[in-house]
Amino acid sequence: MENWRRGRSAFWLIGLGPTFWLVLFFLIPLAIVWLYSFAELRGLVDMEVTGTLDNYARALDPLYLEVFGKSVVFAGITTVVSLIVGFPVALAIVFAPPRWRPILLLLVILPFWTNLLIRTYALIAVLRVRGFANFTLEWFWEQSNTLLSLLGLGSYQLLGERFEPLELLYNNTAVIIGLVYVHLPFMVLPLYAALEKLDRSLIEAALDLGASQWRAFLTVVVPLSMPGIISGAILVFIPALGSFLTPDLLGGTDSQMIANVIERQFKSANDWPFGAALSFLLMYLTFAALALRAVVSRGRGGI
Known about the structure:
This protein has 303 residues and is an all-alpha fold.
C-alpha cells in the first residue's frame, strides 16, 4: 500500500491512456446514443433532442415486447443448453491427464480464431437440406435399411421408401443451435476455472460415506462449482440476448430477436431515436441480469 501511495503519479500516468480511450470511444458514444433515445425525427435524417419519452413508450408496444420476450427465451434456452453440454466438457478437461489439458483447452477456444460470420456459414453448410447433418442421417438410414433387408424385414418398409431430409435450417431450432455453438466456450471456460479449484478429497469423502456418484455430483461438485455456473450463465446469457447475426442467417421470419429489430431501425428504417430506445431497454435488461448475479452472489456469501 505504501509503495502504491509513493508511486501514485506513475499509477495515474499509466491509467491515463486507457481511461482516455474508454471515455472517448465508449462512454461518449454511449451517451450520444442515450440522448438519441430522447430525440424526435425532424425529417428523413434530422433529429432533435426534445426529452420525449415517446420512443420508450413505443418500445413497450406488445409487438416489441413479444420480440423482447422471445429474445429472453432464446437466450435462456441457450444458457441452459450450454450449461448441460458444457459441464461434462469442463469436467472431462479437469479430470484429463495434465499433458492433455492444454490441448483440450485449445480445442475449446479454437473457434475464437475464426470470424463469427465464417463459422455461421459453416454451420449453414452443416444444417441445410443437402448438408452434412442430413448426409449423415441419410447414411444411417441406408445402413439401417440394409440391415433390415438382411434380417428379412426390408419388405415392411419400416423406415419408409426413401429418406426425407430434416428441415434443420431457417427456424427457431436452428437459431438455438447456432447460439449454443457460438457461446458454448463462454460457459466451458468459467466452469473449468471453478472445477479446477475443486478439492477432490471432498468427492472421495462423499463416496466413502456411501453417496452414489450421482449424489456426490449433485451435493458436492455442483454447489462448489456454483461461482463458475453463475459466471458462465452471465457470459452466455448477455451476448446471446443481443445476438443479431445468428438469427439473421439461421432463423426464419418468426425467429427474429430484438437485436435484429434494432439493426433495422438504424439501417433500413433510419429511425435512430427508436433504435436507441430499444438499445437501452436491452441494456437495462443486461444490467438487471448483472444485478441478479450480484444478489445471488451476496446471498451465497459473496461468491
